[in-house]
Write a structure and sequence with these properties.
The complex is a heterotrimer of chains A (172), B (399) and C (513). With 172 residues, chain A is mainly beta. Chain A has one domain (2-169): 3-Layer(bba) Sandwich (FAD/NAD(P)-binding domain), CATH 3.50.50. Chain A is 12% helix and 33% strand. The longest helix of chain A has 12 residues, at 12-23. The model of chain A has no long low-confidence stretch (mean pLDDT 95). In chain B, strands 2-1-3-4 form a 4-stranded parallel β-sheet, sandwiched between helices. Chain B has a 4-stranded parallel β-sheet with strand order 6-5-7-8. Chain B starts with 11 loop residues before the first helix and ends with a helix. In chain B, α5 packs across α15. Chain B has 3 domains: 4-85, Alpha-helical ferredoxin (Fumarate Reductase Iron-sulfur Protein, Chain B, domain 2, Orthogonal Bundle); 148-203 and 216-279, Rossmann fold (3-Layer(aba) Sandwich); 293-396, Rossmann fold. With 513 residues, chain C is an alpha+beta fold. Helix content of chain C is 35%, strand content 22%. Chain C has helices at 15-26, 55-58, 62-78, 99-110, 120-126, 147-160, 205-211, 277-290, 330-334, 350-365, 395-401, 410-413, 425-435, 440-447, 460-471, 475-490, 496-509; strands spanning 5-11, 31-34, 50-51, 83-84, 88-92, 116-118, 136-140, 143-145, 164-166, 171-177, 180-186, 191-199, 218-228, 236-239, 248-252, 255-259, 263-264, 299-310, 325-329, 339-344, 416-418, 423-424. In chain C, a hairpin with an 8-residue loop joins β14 and β15 (248-252). In chain C, α1 (15-26) runs parallel beside α6, α1 (15-26) crosses α10 (350-365) and α15 packs across α16 (475-490). Chain C is globular and about 65 Å long. Classes of the chains: A mainly beta (172), B alpha/beta (399), C alpha+beta (513). Chains in contact: A-B, A-C, B-C. The interface between A and B is medium-sized, with 28 and 25 residues.
Chain lengths: 172, 399, 513
């Protein structure tokens, strides 16, 4: 299926990115796995996504972007868990948040971005991921994907021309 | 997969649980699912009988940011620990009857006119309400005089060189052959012949929710064996019920422990298959020029869980003359046989009220949905006729 | 100076002190227990929660093994509500061979422990979670015991038999008249007199004794453990080999506890114990050998306790040092009358340690009262456990408190406050009344509040509001104390789902949603 813009992540950042695009008449697809924490702020949990849907956006609720294919420095398609065929767009927006929403995954040694394998800024020493004082600013809350000055996501050190990152997933 | 502790206790699932909103006795998906599971692993005596209120709508799973199989966990717990929770006496008979769609359908069909009349009779309804606990507001779906399979046998499918298999389900077979007939007509018009499965049993969803998991598993094994044969012949198995589809694809492995990974991709809704074939240009249908229909689409909960409503919606959008509005996804409240039970009728209607209100406000000619039990509920509660998208398509093409 | 003179003052509110105060109270002695923090705050609350059958010691320490099996049988009777009769397996993997097993079974039987070799297939049927590579298994009467409940039950029983419990009060020095110890001075400036003072303060005993001129060679041995979020096995799983690191997995209430390590640490570090990344890595690596599914089971926290081992030979790691019971009569040993030390031992043998100490106390005080602790059931375990009945909210509390639930008002306080562990307001009120808690960490030890997979991230404000209301203190302060305490256990395992939980915790705590 073909869209103008595919936004991965239907939380606060994803909706904020989608709204002006939908208003401008773009064909937008939002892949929204699960609710985001911001859902508690609206009168109904899906309020913002439902409005976007009414305005013509395609919202894939409960679907998860599994992988993105990059050719010649451009994203050419993404695959999701529920849809058999690839989803294709001119522009892609990564708005999957940090760890809670699984925009970033981690194990004992690594932190990675699972859809595109984007470059992630983090300390390789896991004892540096946190401050022992619970109330101090926590280093892991600053980890995120690398972007260039225009907000384009870096993969293997190279900016992907049609992939931008917004919201929590960005490195601070 | 037992992924109970991926649950981060964010409670987002509790925001979307339709039962929690109307029934204070239901502990909600988080407590009934992952919280309860930790205790049930310690001691089965921690099983809470309030789990019977779970509609198995899977809206919790759609909302979960951690991909916890909350609904599956609750279903599995009901099966594993809740056997004593099965109703006894007349209510047990009722549950058995409601669950045994296959058997009861076979028995009823030959006497369809009589059965249908009898089920409409006031005294019969009040006996069913009082003694059996089938709510008197409910109208049983009518039994058809002729079973779908009997109609199908008379259809010549020999002239085709490409075939698909069709899993018709109980509802098409015993109550509503028209839907199956419409699909066969569309497929034939598209140049595909239709085969039925060598052996088809009820998918088992009603058995599972009424506590008859062992029977469901047996029937599931029969279906999977037939589906495998179809797959070997290179035929996809098409369906016209979102719930049967969801059950065979996802509940078989996740709840009943039936391994289906080899054929899961082969089971799909006819709307999805048709959408893909039409959009790729492999199938060309001739549409009527004079066709006009104002339709709202209701996404059934299991459809939402599969994430396939997009196919039905896009298929409807391909039909010239259809004015389509997509409703916000809300549960209709019937949840298969759940809403037929007298003790659940009130919950069922309260849960559906948001959806009914949305439908009335849109004032369509028809509601389109992929689930037959949503159809009964919406027709009874709004008086607006409900069609499967396949029926809309059948009406819109020139045959 | 307090006017009252007690027969006995016990210093230390761990399992040893709690068992001793109970024994003394049951024998009619006027007794005071002083604890610097909350009950069960030290090593007694930082262990496996394993009720040893003695099998682990059968090969190396016959006497210890015999003590264990005797006490194991006694605790199953008197503390039925604290003990879960899970039974245990000692499994042999191909790399372990079966030579150890044969000798192990023989030694178990010699110590009176029922050890039965079972077929690997049978073992896998009994406990499907264990490593399928096993080549042998031995079934032994290990069990799971909840240390918090066990200590609480002893304290309650002591109080109900007239003992006084003074918490959150440290003993700053032992008061002497001449050579004789006649009482203690507390952090509140009081001097409390007693005819006998018993040191039962675990690793902190040595420092107290030293100030009174008594030398006890103690060697703190650190043991790190990790908690997995749910029960992966319903039996205690051991490796059938020479005791080593990380070879015991115990199902404790609704979690699994894997441990432990054994490393000599300086005494100064004992007040702030935490598991290191190296210890966590080691535990995980070994744990997966016992139960492969641990590789992808969420770890909710890691922690460490200190074994109060008494040195015979100060060299080597803790494991070669005697873990036997050490009862020191300082009158005969050091010429300091009025002072007794009871230390060493294990959670499983605490009752026996108390009996030995109290026998000595009675001898000194001229009492002929007999020990009854082996036959009298503890509070919560008296009579039949109440049957599960609705409301459902009560069930978890029945599991935790047994017959004590009779004292909780579920009619009024049935609202669940901590959802992971199903803790109701009624249970909180009971704990506050019975155990005088100051904060949520204290409350946790008596109720399991905040011990579940969310570690307090979701319910903590609710808990704080309820507790603040009862105690008339600031809810924010309660939250702050508790989150800091939880954070300490989470940070050694801060990746994967625990890191996800941490982000949620940080965001909710900072109102950044």
């Amino acid at each position: 299926m073909r869209f103008d813009v595919i936004i991965i992540g239907g939380g606060w950042a994803g909706c904020t990115a989608a709204e002006p695009l939908v208003e401008a008449g773009k064909k937008v697809c939002i892949v929204s796995e699960g609710l985001s924490l911001s859902a508690v702020k609206y009168e109904s949990p899906y309020a913002r996504l439902a409005t976007l849907q009414k305005q013509g956006a395609v919202v894939l609720r409960g679907d998860r972007a599994i992988s993105g294919k990059i050719e010649d420095g451009k994203v050419v398609e993404i695959r999701t868990r529920n849809m058999d065929e690839p989803l294709v767009a001119d522009e892609y927006v990564l708005a999957t948040g940090k760890f809670f929403s699984r925009g970033l995954l981690s194990d004992k040694e690594h932190i990675w971005e699972p859809v595109f394998g984007a470059d992630v800024v983090y300390d390789p020493d896991r004892t540096k991921w946190f401050d022992p004082d619970f109330e101090a600013p926590q280093p892991f809350m600053k980890f995120g994907v690398k972007t260039d000055a225009e907000g384009r996501v870096l993969v293997g050190g190279k900016a992907i021309v049609n992939l931008t990152a917004v919201g929590d997933i960005c490195n601070e | 997969m037992n992924n109970l502790e991926q649950c981060l206790k964010c409670n987002l699932c509790t925001l979307v649980c339709p039962m929690m909103e109307v029934n204070p006795d239901y502990p909600g998906p988080k407590k009934a699912g992952p919280d309860g599971e930790r205790y049930r692993l310690k001691d089965p005596a921690f099983f809470d009988y309030a789990l019977k209120y779970c509609l198995n709508c899977k809206r919790c799973e759609v909302a979960c940011p951690s991909d916890v199989h909350i609904g599956d966990m609750i279903q599995a717990a009901r099966i594993k620990y809740g056997s004593q929770a099965k109703a006894k006496g007349l209510r047990g008979l009722r549950d058995w009857t409601l669950a045994s769609t296959d058997l009861v359908g076979s028995l009823a069909s030959p006497f369809a006119p009589v059965v249908n009349e009898v089920l409409q009779l006031k005294p019969v309804k009040s006996v069913m309400d009082g003694m059996l606990g089938v709510d008197k507001h409910r109208t049983f779906p009518k039994y058809s005089k002729q079973k779908f399979v009997n109609w199908f046998r008379k259809q010549d499918q020999s002239g085709f060189d490409r075939f698909v298999s069709y899993f018709h389900g109980c509802y098409v077979n015993y109550n509503y052959p028209k839907l199956g007939q419409d699909l066969v007509k569309i497929l034939n018009a598209a140049g595909y012949g239709v085969h039925l499965l060598e052996k088809e049993k009820c998918c088992g969803v009603a058995l599972m929710s009424n506590g008859f998991a062992a029977r469901a598993k047996k029937q599931g094994a029969v279906n999977l064996a037939s589906i495998r044969k179809a797959a070997e012949a290179g035929e996809p198995v098409l369906t016209t019920s979102s719930t049967c589809t969801f059950t065979m694809r996802d509940e078989y492995p996740d709840v009943l422990g039936l391994q289906n990974s080899d054929v899961r991709d082969n089971i799909m809704l006819a709307t999805k298959w048709l959408y893909e074939k039409i959009s790729s240009g492999e199938i060309k249908l001739k549409f009527r020029k004079d066709f006009r229909m104002k339709v709202v689409y209701h996404t059934a909960c299991h459809m939402q869980k599969m994430g396939w409503q997009l196919y039905s919606i896009e298929l409807l959008r391909m039909i010239p003359g259809v004015t389509l509005t997509v409703l916000d996804q809300n549960c209709c409240g019937i949840s298969g046989t759940f809403g037929f039970k007298k003790e659940n009728y009130g919950f069922s209607q309260k849960i559906g009220s948001k959806l009914f209100e949305d439908i009335r406000t849109s004032n369509p000619e028809y509601v389109a949905t992929d689930c037959e039990t949503c159809k009964w509920q919406i027709e009874m509660s709004t008086g607006i006729p409900v069609l499967n998208p396949i029926e809309v398509l059948a009406e819109a093409i020139e045959l | 100076m307090s006017a009252k003179e007690y027969d006995v003052i016990i210093v230390g509110g761990g399992v040893t002190g709690a068992a001793t105060v109970r024994d003394c109270a049951l024998r009619g002695l006027s007794t005071l227990l002083i604890e610097r923090g909350d009950i069960c705050d030290g090593a007694s609350g930082r262990n496996h929660g394993l009720l040893h059958s003695g099998a682990r010691y059968a090969v190396t320490d016959r006497e210890g093994a015999e003590e264990c099996i005797r006490e194991n049988r006694i605790l199953r009777r008197i503390a039925s509500n604290c003990v879960e009769q899970t039974e245990g397996l000692f499994i042999s993997l191909p790399e372990d061979g079966l030579d150890y097993q044969a000798n192990f079974i023989k030694k178990c039987r010699e110590a009176g422990i029922d050890a039965e070799a079972i077929d690997p297939a049978e073992a896998l049927r009994m406990e499907p979670a264990i490593n399928p590579r096993i080549i042998g298994a031995v079934k032994v009467p290990d069990a799971s015991v909840d240390p918090f409940r066990l200590v609480d039950a002893h304290i309650l029983d002591a109080q109900r038999h007239g003992a006084d419990i003074l918490k959150f009060t440290a003993v700053t020095e032992l008061v002497k008249e001449g050579d004789r110890v006649v009482g203690v001075k507390t952090s509140k400036g009081d001097v409390i007199r007693a005819r006998e003072v018993v040191l039962a303060a675990g690793i902190w005993t040595a420092g107290l004794a030293q100030a009174a001129g008594v030398k006890i060679g103690m060697m703190p041995s650190k043991g790190a453990l990790i908690i997995y979020g749910h029960r992966v096995a319903n039996m205690v799983i051991n490796r059938c080999r020479k005791p080593a690191n990380a070879d015991i997995l115990v199902p404790g209430d609704v979690v699994s506890v894997l441990g432990t390590t054994s490393d000599k640490v300086p005494v100064e570090t004992c007040d702030d114990m935490h598991a290191t990344p190296e210890e966590v890595d080691l535990l995980m690596r070994e744990g997966e050998q016992l139960v492969p599914s641990l590789a992808h089971t969420r770890i909710i926290r890691a922690y460490a306790g200190v074994r109060p081992l008494v040195v015979a030979d100060p060299a080597g790691d803790g494991r070669n040092v005697s873990r036997g019971i050490v009862l020191l009569d300082h009158e005969t040993r050091d010429g300091v009358p009025g002072l007794i030390t009871i230390t060493g031992g294990k959670l499983t043998t605490a009752r026996l340690m108390a009996e030995m100490a109290t026998d000595l106390i009675c001898k000194k005080l001229g009492s002929s009262a007999r020990c009854e602790t082996a036959v009298r059931a503890l509070p919560g375990s008296e009579g039949r456990k109440p049957r599960f009945k609705d409301p459902f909210n009560m069930r978890a509390a029945i599991g935790r408190h047994g017959t004590e639930v009779a004292q909780m008002d579920f009619e009024k306080g049935g609202e669940i406050i901590c959802e992971c562990e199903s803790v109701t307001r009624a249970e909180i009120e009971y704990a506050v009344k019975q155990f005088g808690v100051r904060n949520i960490s204290d409350l946790r030890r008596h109720t399991r509040i905040g011990m579940g997979t969310c570690q307090g991230s979701f319910c903590i404000r609710k808990v704080a509001a309820v507790l603040a209301d009862i105690l008339s203190v600031s809810a924010e302060e309660l939250v702050r104390e508790y989150m800091q305490e939880r954070w300490k256990g989470m940070t050694p395992v801060l990746w994967g789902d625990t890191l996800r939980e941490a982000e949620y915790m940080q965001k909710t705590n900072r109102d950044e949603i």
